[in-house]
Amino acid sequence: MVIQCKRHAPTSAIASRELRDLLGARVHFGADPAVFVTTTRFSRPSEEFALRHGILAVHRDHLGVWNGGASLMSLADLNGAGQGDTRHRTRWKQAYSE
């Protein structure tokens, strides 16, 4: 298993290039699964890249579910299911944006 964790500003998004780096590490080490965990969100292209290459993309909303006791593998069913509803994102930006 390979896991990459990133803590970014609340207003930023994870770009595809960061997931490409993780994919390279997975191939290099022969690992399965590959998990990318972030305190922010994934860009649409990076989310699609994760799905296409079997990377579990754990964004800020899923991180809360995982922290609440859900197993990591149970999050696989949520992979690529979006990044929360618009109202949630708006409240989150108001609370944490500078």
Would you give an account of this structure?
The chain is an alpha/beta fold. It is built from 4 helices and 5 strands; from the N terminus they run E-E-H-E-E-H-E-H-H. It has a 3-stranded parallel sheet with strand order 1-3-5. Strands 2-4 form a two-stranded parallel ribbon.
Please work out how many helical segments DSSP would assign: 4
Q: Which stretches are low in confidence, meaning pLDDT under 50 for 5 or more residues running? A: none
Shape: globular
Residue-averaged pLDDT = 85
Rg, rounded, reads 13 Å
Q: What is the number of strand segments? A: 5
The assigned structural class equals: alpha/beta
Q: What composes the largest sheet?
A: 3 strands, parallel
Which bin fits the share of residues in helices?
A: 40-55%
Secondary-structure element pattern, one letter each: EEHEEHEHH
Give the terminus-to-terminus CA distance.
35 Å
